[in-house]
């Protein structure tokens, strides 16, 4: 499928038989790039605040389109799981990429904020762009899908700082 005829995620999910193995591998490669660019932006915004960044964890997807296309986990581009660690070695936040095929979006990343004490807070980041477009990440608290706002790494820093001061 050429870039001129790229279909939306919803269209691909509605008619999966027309999605080729090459389409799936191309989307997964592009998904990896978008997620890693998001992580780069986050790391840049948090530099100089004493955090460590751990991308050692890797994720591959088992979404239906990937399985239907016969793409094995070994063939998939490995997508980093980002862990942000406080100076004391405790987790401040974890970003877990879910996959590019989400109805109404161009991918989902789960975010869990871990305060030094107390209950963690879960958010969903959704890319509202179309396939092979510049990403537009929005965030929403899990359980409150209508509380959507553009994701900004400065917001993340403020939330982590807020957790530190409690």
Structure write-up:
- This protein is of the alpha+beta class and 166 residues long.
- The protein has one domain.
- It is built from 4 helices and 7 strands.
- Helix 2 packs across helix 4.
- The longest helix has 26 residues.
- The chain starts with 8 loop residues before the first helix and ends with a helix.
What is the alpha-carbon Rg in Å? 17 Å
**Average pLDDT for all residues:** 89
- Compressed to H and E, one letter per element, the order equals HHEHEEEEEEH
Low-pLDDT parts are none
Number of domains: 1
Strand content: 25-35%
Helical proportion, percent range: 25-40%
Q: Please describe the biggest sheet, giving its number of strands, its sense, and whether it closes into a barrel.
A: 7 strands, antiparallel
Q: Name the overall outline.
A: globular
Structural class: alpha+beta
The number of distinct β-strands equals: 7
**Ends: how far apart?**
52 Å
How many helical elements?
A: 4
- Walk across the major sheet and give the strand order: 1-2-3-4-5-6-7
Break the fold down into its secondary structure elements and pairings.
Layout: H1 9-14, H2 21-46, E1 52-59, H3 64-68, E2 79-85, E3 91-99, E4 108-113, E5 121-127, E6 137-141, E7 149-150, H4 153-164
Antiparallel strand pairs: 1-2, 2-3, 3-4, 4-5, 5-6, 6-7
Helix pairs in contact: 2-4
Throw out a few tags for this protein.
166 residues, seven-stranded antiparallel β-sheet, alpha+beta, 7 strands
